[in-house]
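Worked example
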Amino acid sequence: MTSTTGPAQPSASDASDPFTGFAERLSATTLLRFATAGSVDDGKSTLVGRLLHDSKSVLTDQLEAVEHASRSRGQDAPDLALLTDGLRAEREQGITIDVAYRYFATPRRRFILADTPGHVQYTRNMVTGASTAELAVVLVDARNGVVEQTRRHAAVAALLRVPHVVLAVNKMDLAGYAEPVFAAIAEEFTAYAASLGVREITAIPISALAGDNVVEPSAHMDWYGGPTVLEHLETVPVSSDLASSPARFPVQYVIRPQTAEHPDYRGYAGQIASGVLRVGEAVTVLPSGRTSTIEGIDALGESVDIAWAPQSVTVRLADDIDISRGDLIAPSTGAPATTQDVTATVCHVADAPLVVGQRVLLKHTTRTVKAIVKDIPSRLTLDDLSQHPDPGKLVANDIGRVRVRTAEPLALDAYADSRGTGSFLLIDPADGTTLSAGMAGDAFAEGAAGTAAAAAMASDDEGWDF
């Protein structure tokens, strides 16, 4: 079980609801996951390297290795992109191929960043990096403006419901630090992203190579009065919706020590996916539908009255109910409905195609069930957000709508309501390969043309026709 160290418990001096107002005090200490995206050669890796370098998050031996590699390539100054581009092919070609994850921290916040590729053929890598991100930094070359790949990455960020998007207009030094250039790009991108449903867009003019407005304010753009990239990353709120999100607790492990000290202890361990759990709250266990009351919550070896996402806790219920790994505990008011028919948008990440009639495993939180792909109504064209009806299959990097029938009921939320419990994976039952990453419910392109003409599946002796 993954252990997540949560903030200290609210004090008795807080309001009658201990969680009230506490989220605001968390924002300065929480972990921010963010991803960088953009077209090829827009400077994503250089921006990440500049962030690490100027925030003093690079070890001396790492910087010496980058300086040595840069000199061997005939460069006078260190190529900060080498801090993230670690693959040999990446360094040879000067591009990002795989997702590079880096951890760094400042006195105000901790960060995990994902430097994602810009090439069209690596769209699946961008989806992987942004799937858990709370913020996406989309880079644009000030000389080229908003291009096709920029719109594609904005669409992926909108599809993944990334709450915050930063437009970093890079290479302003090569555009004469001209304010009209920045204003025109910011206006075009903001209008496009807003039409996709992106809720918050912040535009920042930068030069990743020179360091303008990355960590330190630029002396060349006194017309810009907003935050630097790092200032925005340190202050963007990421905890304000904890109390308002519906509580979801996937059970990961049942604890039954049956020792002389704890002869009757029965606890359900896991990580809270969203929302807040409180002692005394009426809850429903899904998919069985049995109800009970939270009798106790144990966190880090101590009993607490309240716990919230993403804490790892053990929940004790007032009643002995048949609960096992994969079950979901949720408040009785607002518990999700269970279903065996899943309609979702998926990004196909495997090299082998996903086809109608394919037998798969569907992994949702801690629950894995058998399933069949019943229909693929459409494939999304990210260039113009048009729908290609009845593609018959999805190949690597494709994003499309699918209908899946599961062998057992699932307690799925809509992805728009909960990224944690509205997402799932489709897995190859033969070798465990991840096939597709799915987002349940409506996508921003919902309503596109498409038919549901999947053929009826013949039954077989393995019990996959349901």
Observations:
- The radius of gyration is 24 Å.
- DSSP finds eight helices and 25 strands in the chain.
